[in-house]
Amino acid sequence: MAPRNRIIFDTDPAGVDDMLAMLLALASSPEELEIVMLSVTYGNVPLKSCLKNVVSLFHVLDKEIAWRRAQGKPQGFEVLRAFKPIVAIGPEHALEEEILAEDGFHGADGLHGVHEAHPHLSPAETWKSLFEEGVPSAAEDPSYYSHFIPSRTPAHKEILRILKEEPEDTITICAVGPMTNIAMAAAEDPETFLRVKELVVMGGAVDVEGNVTPVAEFNTFADAIATARVFALTSAVPTSTMPTVPLTKSGLPPYPEKLSKRLRLSLFPLDITTPHLLNKSFFFDSITTHLKEGSPLATWINTFMSGTFRQIERIVGTDEEPGLSLHDPLTIWYMITHGDPGWKLAKGGQEDIRVETSGQWTHGMHVIDRRGRKRAGEGIAVGLGVDSQGPDAVTIDEITGDDFGWLSAKRGNRINRYAESPGTDKFAPLLMERLFGKN
Among the CATH numbers 3.30.450.20, 3.90.245.10, 3.30.70.240, 3.30.43.10, which is that of 5-278+322-364+412-436? Predict the structure, then answer.
């Protein structure tokens, strides 16, 4: 049976939830999804540290599968064993900013010191030869190399190649980090990029506070210009929401005036992701048996999860039980269950959500029109329009005085923002069971 969903996973694995998202994807069944490519971007730590975390993931899973096999346990991780994703890397910083938006939450390596704590679970530095010229390679390829295909081609070019070679509307991109890779692919070849079936984005904060500034979520804040450019492809008039900030460093061109279609973009902001918690007590109850048995994966995950809970307690105190919000894994849950009626859009349909790129205090903010006014064509009495499809058709594209197109029928973005899942209390148990089986 062909995989239900084929995805390019664009990630900044300098955070615990990124790693859990990749683990959930690799622990799924081939009937649910296939990871065609892992597109690596920078995040809370530099790009090379992010790439090391991805390579370490394959290294640990290789050890875990061998351990499970020796113990007579089900091997799990069927997607990992069925497919070999390409791994490619993007630029080291945002389109226009060279300083990373680091917050230090996940530690210097992005995983709370796991490489130092368990050096036997970190790959030898010879892995760098897969991605860089002039780096000494291993005398013999380690077994974990068999789980992925390294590429020295820039990530955004690999994205375009895959979209061009595969049938249209068969590849979904899940973007759970700064959207620099995505914006570069869209700018280089918009029509090829629009062959994507769906762009699933974890990012932003709409009706809740941000997690890096009062109004901005980290992924969007880290490269607001990239996010704004990608969001503009959901509009019938992309120029209406493109960033006004001059591109002096990246030099990305504007989009053509006419494109063949609009981008289908599904957004998972902090509004929906934050309540999906993996609580401290539940995590330790779930993993203790596997730790005692000697699971390499349990040892690895326990280290960075313990660091995460300590960091949460340091920030918010110990009055309430700490929980990790499963931001990035939620996009994978959506991919494997998107037919579930429990997934519901905010306000029942598409929204005009725009990204602030030039505000001193609002950089990266997701902006919506809260005035409650009707958009053009929504119950407003108008005369015949130039786009009429028949003698009695009545249409309107613009409303007088609406200079920024918030009420326009054509201008503005059209985002599918998800507000409800099949259940905030269901996800953490499903995640832990997928990774380790039933206790």
Answer: 3.90.245.10
Q: Which of 48, 61, 68 is closest to 22 using CA atoms?
A: 61
Q: Residue 40 in 3-state DSSP? A: strand
Tokens of 310: 């300590």
Question: What's the gap between Cα 148 and its chain centre?
Answer: 20
CA–CA dist 312, 269 (Å, integer): 20
Rounded CA separation 234/212 (Å): 26
Q: How confident is the model at residue 392 (pLDDT cuts 50, 70, 90)?
A: very low
> In a 3-state reduction of DSSP, which class is residue 343?
coil
Token representation of residue 31: 């009937």
Q: Which residues have a Cβ under 8 Å from the Cβ of 153 and sit 6 or more positions away? A: 88, 161
* Average pLDDT along the chain: 91
Find out whether 77 and 28 touch, Cβ atoms under 8 Å.
no
Q: How far apart (Å, rounded) are the C-alpha atoms in residues 197 and 133?
A: 35
Give percent helix, percent strand, percent coil of the chain, each to the nearest 5: 35, 10, 50
DSSP state of 119: G
Cα–Cα nearest to 257, from 244, 238, 278: 238
Q: Is 350 exposed, middle or buried (0-12, 13-18, 19+ CB in 10 A)?
A: middle
The pTM of the full predicted model, rounded to 2 decimals, is 0.94
Tokens of 152: 């020295």
Q: What is the tens place of the pLDDT at every residue in 226-243?
A: 999 999 999 999 999 999
Both tokens of 93, joined, read 């910083």
d(CA 420, CA 350): 15
Residue 102: predicted pLDDT: 64
pLDDT digits 0-9 by tens, 270-282 = 999 999 999 999 9
